[in-house]
Prior knowledge:
The protein is 27% helix and 46% strand.
Amino acid sequence: xxxxxxxxxxxxxxxxxxxxxxxxxxxxxxxxxxxxxxxxxxxxxxxxxxxxxxxxxxxxxxxxxxxxxxxxxxxxxxxxxxxxxxxxxxxxxxxxxxxxxxxxxxxxxxxxxxxxxxxxxxxxxxxxxxxxxxxxxxxxxxxxxxxxxxxxxxxxxxxxxxxxxxxxxxxxxxxxxxxxxxxxxxxxxxxxxxxxxxxxxxxxxxxxxxxx
Length: 212
């Protein structure tokens, strides 16, 4: 390929779409002076979270644990370390449709939940494959357009396509608005209007060039 005159360009395209899925991620922390009560307290909070989600109509079997830990906790004062007790943390997540009424119901329950969970909302696409395919097509078109401009400026024309590559890393099917908040004691309306999700694709293409 090195002996054939050629031109290599990169094409990039971004396709946007309205999110149709929400991932709710929870973090629950319990801290007490003793090991056993710390674990039991954490288990109780998780139980309340599951109960609240079930009341909202969600399948609690879809609630997954991504992280669990319990470790000693210390206070530090004037260079001295004092044992304070234990801290247990459990991170969980569940996916649900991006339905505004359902989300409002879930958030209302969480605002009064005895779990006192911190949570984060991540909007995305349940299946970004169609947007990814569209982005790839547009990226190739853009690459050819740029290559043709460069070739014409150089007094040559494009020949056959010699090589085209793309990587999975530049494609970003996630995105949209993220909201992070702690569970509140008082009811408060939360109107969440998520931004569109962006799916990006990048390709690198090489064309042979020929004299006009």
